[in-house]
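Intended use. Records such as the GlmZ(SRNA)-inactivating NTPase entry shown here are meant for training and evaluating sequence-to-structure methods. They are not intended to support clinical decisions.
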Amino acid sequence: MVPSKFIIVTGLSGAGKTQAMRSLEDLGFFCVDNLPPTLIPKFAELCAQAASKINKIALAVDIRGGEFFNTLFEVLSEIDDQGIGYEILFLEASDETLVRRYKESRRRHPLSSHGEVLDVIREERNRLRELRGRANKIIDTSNMTVQQLKEEIASVFADAAGTSRLHITVISFGFKFGIPLDSDLVIDVRFLPNPHYEPPLRPFSGNDRIVRDFVFASPVTTEFMQKFVDFVEFLIPNYTKEGKTTLMVAIGCTGGRHRSVALANRLGEILNKKDLHVTVRHRDIKRS
């Protein structure tokens, strides 16, 4: 199986390759940093094997490879011969920006053997000129924040990779067991009618129709659910616009067995119908 997306991330040291790789990883890419170019064809071959499930790949290749980096063009020709399509993402920034970043981070430039950072930046820029000319996408990060770079990466590669920009997890829980630590939104539904106090319903959970019907028979639940869905649907495009890639919506009741489970399932059903990437989990359903 030929990888559906093969991206080679390169560019000037300090221009944001690390953040770009993190953003691609968030988009579902299998990412490898600083792989020697000579190993790329073999790596691509392994990923193309029928048993491999890796079909979105991002490799960071740059001047840190030393002498290995000089073989990159030869390697790219070999990949072409294998029939594997690839894109080159080239990151750059102005000399002034790179000098400032190196001074702020107090890190040494890969080509530096002395303190003249500007000289080695210009040397690297010159060595990468031909590679820049072959790039499919060039991003100048001089005036970008980390968040803005993340948004730019998502806008370029999210849809092409067949990856939803926002992965949503809806989790039910019981407040008596504590709030999930990685929650983005925490919704307390303990104001809704409680099946726990109905003896025939107590042994069941929100996964069972008898409990679900009881919970949603209340006009309060119906009204709340409509407002809640509207709220979540309002947030999703705005979170996506800001470059957020994961969202955890935690819905809690007392024990995490009845009300929260029923509402988490319903929210998941509604969002899934809108072609969003949604996972529903019930943390405490077996603990109450």
